[in-house]
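To: structure subgroup
Subject: Chain for Friday's discussion

All,

I'm putting the inputs and outputs inline so they're searchable in the archive.
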Amino acid sequence: MFRMALVLCITVAPMIAAAEQWTFLATDADGGKPLTDAVILMPRPAEPVAADARMVQENRQFVPHVLVIPPGTEVSFPNRDNTQHHVYSFSPVKTFEIELYAGIPEAPIRFDTTGVVELGCNIHDHMQGFILVTDQQHGITNSSGEVSLDWPDDQPLPDQVRAWHPRLADTSRLMDVAIDSHPGEPVTVSLPVRPAPETDSSLDRLQQRFREL
């Protein structure tokens, strides 16, 4: 028995590859500013995870603004506002509609196809959110534009990664971005994003029309 266990350990051990953690920094290609909510995807399948997720409507916003999930995830859309919402998506990856409601819809929405789903609200034009469905290893950048991902230390870092951001000109597609790594430094991922929208505290157009009646 001891000999069999020893042989098994020797056989299995080489299959367990150590991983090295790399930090990625997503920046604006024009100004070099860090980008929050950038999604970095490595050319490596992620561990399959069965998950349920939520895309909340709160303060007339989708929270989180960007939600990354594996295929097969069911997402609920709880409404925490004191007004009703009408959530929809026309994206080919997942077209759906949750008609005017408050509270929690009767059933979650299942996302089986990889890609980007853009969300809107028929009542509040300014509301926009995104669900990115992927089976690849991924991470989303923090407020400093950084995210850390594991990569086998016996393999060189790839020459490019796939990346996405809600201010890309075409938010329906992922970008292939060339990268250049230097020991001890974050790997910069530069993205050609549109300028950030100006903060506007005014009422959206539909609400303003109601006030004027």
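Points worth raising on Friday:
The CA atoms of residues 85 and 100 lie 5 Å apart.
Confidence is low (pLDDT under 50) at residues 1-16, 209-213.

D.
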